[in-house]
Amino acid sequence: MLPKAAYGYIQSKQRYASQQEILDVARGYRARHLPADVMVVNWFYFTKMGQMDMDPLRWPDPKAMNAELHKMGFESMISVWPRFVPEDRYYQTLLERGWFEHLADGTPTMGLPYDRAGSEIDTTNPNAARWYWDRIRENFIAKGFDSIWADETEPDLPPNGSYLTVGPGTEYFNVYPYFHTKAIYDGFRLRADSTLAGFADSKASWGVLLYCSPSSFQAVGDCVRSLPGHRRCFRIPA
Description:
The chain is α/β, with parallel strands linked by helices and 238 residues long. It contains 6 helices and 10 strands; from the N terminus they run βαβαββαβαβββαβαβ. It has one domain: Glycosidases (TIM Barrel, Alpha-Beta Barrel). The strands form 3 sheets. The chain has a 6-stranded mixed sheet with strand order 1-2-3-6-9-10, with helices on one face. Strands 4-5 form a two-stranded antiparallel ribbon.
């Protein structure tokens, strides 16, 4: 069973610009006695893609923010992207370890002609998957976030022509959502302490209901391609 909050109203939009804004929205729900259960921090809270931080100018105290949301009866979810750029603090580590989706010559796949927003970590590699969870735990779970939105798991970057640890992307075309979500599931289940509950939402598709994210520009073919991955949610009891 999913957590009770997952069956309620989950408040999200393309982005909230600051800690103050998301708290004001949450207070507004409670002041108007409107039912809502989860507040979502979407992308661009970070200083750069792959930094896995929260801009201190706009998000000065995420732990205090989450504590206040909890007092108001909300759970919190944060969008985490698997993309990294050369300027972030983790890119070089991933590059040296060969943990990116890559081209035949080993060069990390760097987006599409119209989208150069980073290279994706290859979470089909179990070592990369464990590393990714550890960064999520120390950067977000430790700050009081209850659940993870595993964003960009369609993925936007078609894997054909690139290579993953499990094999060529042309052959293993739809496996990324499964392996990527599994990395977070295994983190909560196998590496979390006994008091930590886990819930993750993966942006791919939802059962037989085709889901296309309004926060990205996707062609119909991209949506169809994401369907076999399904939209995955899980909960690990505390």
